[in-house]
Backbone:
């Protein structure tokens, strides 16, 4: 037997240990039942070929067993909507199928449980992860700064936890990210600038009173200071432009005024006084004759020098 589909029934009690004998199982779907008790540790060692494990919407409790990290072929792991507590195991990095390309979507869903502690940095090793849902838990601490290494991530939901610190700038580097929800945490600081992060609705970031910047309407303090600087700088520049314009007007106005005074001071006088006009033109004729004689003498001297 390779698949087991018992989804959406009214199954109760603990997961039967007899399943450990079905070593060839590739898919186990027991979602939406009323199964309870602790997650059995034998799943990891007894079902080595398991690719899909769906235990969502049951009543399992206790912590995530470390043996679960032995499921090296697992590609879809759904433990959501249970009563699971404790920390997320760091050994998740051993789920090597989630580090390799394949046909199935690589997905981890631990949402709607009672998980505590920080998001382990080891999750970032699952580089082919497409969907990661850790929402509705009691997780604390920062979002891993290297989360941008999950280049294949299309869905990321970390909402309704107690995550703190800033949003890592590397998150803006995930070009494929289509769904993002960081709402209702205690995140703070400026939302990193990047086409990807600003394209999401403001509801993606709501419930984080310390966050600021687009797409939120709340402006960051440093942006407000820059706006003030730009205003005064622009005002100063505008005043300088106005002053330069006034100076240019005075400069060119003085040139025109000086030309008019000089022109009409000479020509007007010649027009009004006939005797002055005759004397002026007689003076010009004398200058012309003198220039002609001087030029002729100099040309003759040059010719003699060349002949010699």
Residues:
């Amino acid at each position: 037997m390779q698949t087991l589909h018992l989804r959406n029934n009214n199954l109760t009690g603990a997961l039967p240990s007899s399943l450990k004998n079905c070593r060839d199982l590739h898919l186990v779907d027991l979602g939406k039942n009323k199964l309870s008790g602790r997650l059995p540790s034998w799943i990891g060692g007894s079902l080595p070929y398991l690719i899909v494990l769906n235990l969502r919407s049951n009543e399992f409790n206790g912590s995530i067993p470390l043996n679960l990290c032995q499921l090296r072929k697992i590609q879809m792991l759904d433990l959501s909507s249970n009563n699971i507590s404790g920390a997320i195991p760091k050994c998740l990095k051993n789920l090597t199928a989630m580090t390799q390309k394949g046909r199935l979507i690589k997905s981890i869903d631990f949402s709607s449980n009672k998980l505590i502690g920080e998001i382990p940095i080891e999750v970032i090793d699952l580089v082919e992860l497409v969907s990661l849902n850790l929402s509705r838990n009691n997780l604390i601490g920062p979002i891993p700064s290297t989360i941008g290494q999950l280049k294949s991530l299309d869905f990321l939901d970390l909402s309704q936890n107690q995550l703190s610190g800033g949003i890592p700038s590397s998150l803006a580097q995930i070009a494929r990210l289509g769904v993002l929800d960081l709402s209702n945490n205690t995140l703070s600081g400026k939302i990193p600038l990047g086409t990807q992060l600003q394209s999401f609705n403001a509801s993606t970031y709501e419930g984080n009173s310390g966050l600021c910047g687009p797409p939120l309407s709340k402006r960051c303090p440093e942006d407000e200071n820059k706006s003030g600087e730009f205003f005064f700088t622009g005002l100063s520049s505008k005043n300088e432009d106005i002053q330069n314009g006034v100076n240019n007007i005075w400069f060119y106005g003085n040139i025109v005024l000086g030309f008019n005074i000089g022109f009409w001071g000479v020509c007007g006088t010649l027009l009004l006084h006939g005797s002055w006009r005759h004397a002026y033109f007689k003076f010009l004729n004398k200058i012309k004759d003198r220039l002609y004689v001087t030029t002729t003498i100099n040309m003759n001297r040059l010719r003699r020098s060349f002949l010699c």
